[in-house]
Amino acid sequence: MDLLSRESFGNSLVRKMASHIVGYPRMGPKRELKFALESFWDGKSSADDLKRVSADLRSSIWKQMADAGIKYIPSNTFSYYDQVLDTTAMLGAVPSRYNWTGGEIGFDTYFSMARGNASVPAMEMTKWFDTNYHFIVPELGPDVNFSYASHKAVDEYKEAKALGVNTVPVLVGPVSYLLLSKPAKGVEKSFPLLSLLDKILPIYKEVISELKAAGASWIQFDEPTLVLDLEAHQLEAFTKAYAELESTLSGLDVLVESYFADVPAGAFKTLTALKGVTAFGFDLVRGTQTLDLIKGSFPSGKYLFVGVVDGRNIWANDLAASLNLLQSLEDLVGKDKLVVSTSCSLLHTAVDLINEPKLDDEIKSWLAFAAQKVVEVNALAKALSGAKDEAFFSANASAQASRKSSPRVTNETVQKASAALQGSDHRRATNVSARLDAQQKKLNLPVLPTTTIGSFPQTVELRRVKFVNTRPRRSLRRSTLKPSRRKSRRLLTFRKSSTLMSWFMESLRGTIWLSTLGTTLRFCLSC
């Protein structure tokens, strides 16, 4: 069976298997959201135009998962900018500098918080754990007047339901939201952000009540901070929060999702004892030690959402290995309580391998983007139910073997050179002070040398060459470098220019370029 064929595979299912996707890329296979946002920001299109493009993307994503046979399909994972910012909007936690006067938060306020405007700066952006994704950091303090100011979660659930897809609404959990926040300007750095829990929980209750009224049967809370090294009072906040929400959650199946790392033993104990929670999701790709905790003390009668399909890379899953792991958990939780899932949101990988027509079949067989990972999840769920697709698994096993043995991945010359390295090879021949003296004599740098941290200017000519030719002209690179050298004797770094990076990457073996409609993604095959 063709590893890329997902629609026929999904439509062949008689019923939905126990499968779940934590989240999905939101930009679109052809970067539809990017272009719609830029057009709106430039004043070339209206808010209605942006909403229309976004609705089409959401509809296609939900349909894709439904066609693939996914049982627990997420909603409210789409965002115009960032899911944490969406939560800030939901809670009405808008910093005063944006002059928001109340009511439903619109695009003007939302994008001002995200990007700033002519008169005020944007909110701080920082990395989402150890990924390359960045989120907008909430600015909180004792004087924030929280209010239910964005109905996005409920609206998107209703939107999916109207299309015939009953989704699992996803919310950033209340405790993780506060732990990922920072004290607002003028607020003491020592301000206990968790003291705001009592102020935000009433809004979470409103959202939950509206979702229940709309017909939701499941709800997912993302609490990724559970993988951090939390203190006792921080863990206690989880216990307090879900105890407070328990009565409102009554009648719903509640999934608390963690990802990106192992859940420490103390946090695991706290998590699995939360009141009102019926299901727990774990990343068993990066959280390998969590498996021992699950086998040792997973509570009976609860659902276990097992994240075995990696949401953070572009490689095809080793289906046989994943199936063995899943089968080892069947007796522990029961077949009816075991759900196959992704390790985290698929936001962190590329969208669809079908858009890479230039890749040869061997390379394609090694890869799985978000669309293919959805198929992998359901293939595993189907196998667990006793309806294993032997052809699909056989093709996957062949691809796994091919990747392990291919000379395109394993370079014997590199392997031998690496094996021959000795301890002395990892040390420089001269000490730091000698190297500094030599560098200064050679470069004559100023006391505070400066380096560029961004890209070189992308001239019209350079852009033309970049798209017409696979390799940029050496003369164009020189024309960019020479003026920089002439201006001052500064330490020069060229770091982000995709044209320069492409020239270096194309000179390396074991590297492929994935270029979908102008979007360039770089993944190394071997080292």
UniProtKB/TrEMBL annotation:
Q: In which pathway does it act?
A: Amino-acid biosynthesis; L-methionine biosynthesis via de novo pathway; L-methionine from L-homocysteine (MetE route): step 1/1
Classification via CDD domains: CIMS_N_terminal_like
SUPFAM superfamilies associated with the record? UROD/MetE-like
Q: Which GO terms describe its biological process?
A: methionine biosynthetic process; methylation
Q: Which terms are listed as keywords in the entry?
A: Amino-acid biosynthesis, Metal-binding, Methionine biosynthesis, Methyltransferase, Transferase, Zinc
Q: Where is the Cobalamin-independent methionine synthase MetE N-terminal domain?
A: 19-332
- The entry's protein name is 5-methyltetrahydropteroyltriglutamate--homocysteine S-methyltransferase
